[in-house]
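User: For my dataset I need records formatted as: sequence, then structure tokens, nothing else. Please produce one.
Assistant:
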Amino acid sequence: MRAAWDLLRHAGWLASATDDVARAVPGCRPLVDGGFVAASWHRADAPRFLANGTGGFHVRCPSCRGPLAEAFARSLAAWRGGAPRRVTCGCGHACDLADVGFSPMAGFARAWIALEDVASAALLPDADAALAGVLGGVRLVGQRG
């Protein structure tokens, strides 16, 4: 994640006073349409579940596309208690909790970049491509509050 943060700063999408700062403001290149107020990067010792923070998201089985919210909630609670990060759908398909279909987007991460007071939920194409090149992919999770 530090490589992604450094890329955003050195390419002009973020601006910060020093190389060690984990908080930045918008740089000279737009990162999202309409801008944002500040950015910060975060790390955790173990993966964390990141979601919209307001509840009400849909979870679907990646195999049958059926609703999976109840099984997901039980499996997420069990994982937080030390169980494997797995969920099984009524159709019989078992998968990692990270592989289900979320709407709006959610996911698991040990490191992430947060944009505060952001105007758009999508990175501009050049920033998205650059980050995907460093990270191998990008998942945007919108949060409120």
